# Entry
Amino acid sequence: MSCSLTDANANCSISDRCAICPLSRVQAGVRVRIKRLCATPELQHRLRELGLGEERVIRLLTSQTSFICQVCNARLAISEKIARLILVEPVPAHAAA
# Structure
C-alpha cells in the first residue's frame, strides 16, 4: 500500500483544515480518527490487534520520546517511527464525546 500526504508538514491540532496527517504531527491532548495504516501487513495486523485500526478514535496523551495514546480505556505507548505510519484526521470536539 502506498501512502502519500499532500500536506506532510501540516500541524494537526484541533483545526479542521488538516484533512489527514501522521499521528506524529498531532499535538498532545487532541482526539483523532485513524484513517490509514501505512505499514507492512504484519505491522498493520499487530496495530489492529492492539486497537489501533482504521476508524478508531484515539486521544494522543503525550508526544515526547514515545507517543502515548488512549485507546478505549487503555494507554498504549508507540515509537515515533510507528506514529509516522498512522495517518489520522482531527475529530471535531462535538463529535469526540
In short: The chain has two helices and six strands. The first helix runs from residue 41 to 49. Residues 4-16 have pLDDT under 50 and may be disordered. The radius of gyration is 12 Å.
